[in-house]
Design a protein that fits this description.
Elements (H helix, E strand, L loop, with lengths): L1 H11 L1 H22 L11 H23 L2 H5 L2 H5 L6 H34 L5 H30 L6 H25 L3 H34 L1
């Protein structure tokens, strides 16, 4: 039963998957296209790193759109009401959606990890590899909780709103608001720069993870109560 529901999710979310592939590999196609077209000399040694960072950030947008569409799409096309009349329970539907989303996340993050840890050292000068690796690792470690938080908020909004755009915009706006407010807190309470550099990123990542878990649970409860 779960396997059939997963296949249904794949068919329903094909557009999001295509968007995800575009965001994941698009920056690298631009990079390798430039290096193979005679522009290698004009491209800086950090071009691959820029492509890597762009891919990491854009891939989190995929999670945002996935969270916003995973329930709202079926509400929008009225197929959800029909599904609820079939044998699979609401819990089965949500478990299948959760497993599908986790699979997409795992593929995205695994691909990014391979490109960051295995391919990156071959695409930058050896004497700069460690410096660029630190930049990419920091971006990766910060962006993953960021993407999870956006997904959680959009998932919760998707259980409430039929329009896919609303939970998607909410997920992006709320997470950006959180990081904007959080970035000002050290100034308000007078924290030293050394403490901010050491703990701010970790604390913000923890906040994002808490938001992701809370909104995921909230979306599950909203769905089961409303439907």
């Amino acid at each position: 039963m779960i396997a059939q529901l997963l296949w249904k999710e794949y068919r329903t979310q094909k557009a999001v998957l295509i968007l995800g592939i575009t965001f994941l590999v698009g920056p690298f196609l631009v990079y390798f296209g430039g290096t193979s077209s005679g522009f290698a000399d004009s491209m800086s040694s950090g071009s691959y790193v820029i492509a890597m960072v762009a891919s990491i950030v854009l891939s989190q947008i995929t999670l945002l759109v996935l969270g916003g569409s995973i329930i709202a799409t079926e509400r929008q096309n009225r197929s959800l009401e029909f599904q609820l009349l079939l044998p699979p329970t609401r819990s089965h539907l949500l478990i299948a959606k959760t497993l599908f989303c986790l699979a997409v996340m795992a593929v995205i993050w695994l691909c990014l990890l391979v490109m960051a840890e295995i391919i990156l050292p071959f695409c930058v000068p050896e004497n700069q590899a460690e410096q660029f690796s630190r930049v990419v690792r920091y971006t990766y470690q910060f962006s993953c909780p960021f993407g999870l938080a956006m997904f959680g908020i959009a998932w919760m909004g998707s259980a409430v709103f039929e329009n896919i755009a609303i939970p998607t915009v909410l997920g992006l706006a709320i997470v950006i608001a959180v990081v904007t407010i959080a970035s000002r807190i050290p100034q308000w309470i007078g924290l030293s720069d050394s403490i901010v550099q050491e703990y701010f990123g970790k604390a913000l990542a923890l906040v994002y993870l808490i938001i992701a878990i809370a909104t995921y649970i909230g979306g599950w409860k909203l769905f089961t109560r409303r439907w």
